[in-house]
Write a structure and sequence with these properties.
By secondary structure, this protein is mainly alpha-helical. The protein contains eight helices and two strands; from the N terminus they run ααββαααααα. The termini are far apart.
């Protein structure tokens, strides 16, 4: 397995740690406002960009810890996931795994990690969205076969 595949595996393995039942409460496709309780996937793209500019891993780790500290209890970075850890700690644990892949390219690998996490968070946000309009459109419409059957006389 090459480095990129190892990093992608770390990202995809996060789904089980987070838990699909809370994905809709955690991720949003776009940026979030300061009043939002979800994490916008664009945050991960921004962090990936910061990794490219950072001079040390500690800078990125500190930024993640700051994001955790400023979140409200039980929301976004502090949302308790299915493995009973807060989301921010899952990120920090995953970052730690990435650092062990190649200790000579930590920041490059962090940039890849957050880039892949951006893609994956968009997928999770789309797949597990609990947006009321999306649910309303799917739940209030009778499937075509049932609709035809229900309207037969």
């Amino acid at each position: 397995m090459n480095i990129k595949e190892e990093i992608i595996k770390i990202v995809t393995d996060m789904e089980n740690q987070i838990g699909t039942e809370i994905m809709g409460d955690l991720f949003k496709k776009e940026s979030t406002s300061s009043k939002d309780t979800k994490i916008g996937s664009n945050q991960f793209r921004d962090i990936a960009s910061m990794c490219a500019k950072a001079e040390s891993y500690v800078e990125i780790e500190l930024m993640i810890k700051y994001s955790i500290a400023k979140a409200n209890k039980g929301e976004s970075w502090k949302l308790i996931c299915s493995n009973n850890k807060i989301f921010g700690d899952i990120i920090l644990d995953s970052m730690n795994k990435v650092t062990k892949i190649d200790e000579t390219k930590i920041l490059e690998n962090m940039e890849l990690f957050f880039g892949y996490l951006y893609w994956q968070a968009r997928i999770w946000a789309d797949r597990y969205s609990n947006d009321s309009n999306k649910n309303k459109n799917h739940n209030n419409r009778m499937p075509d076969k049932q609709y035809r059957h229900a309207n037969r006389s």
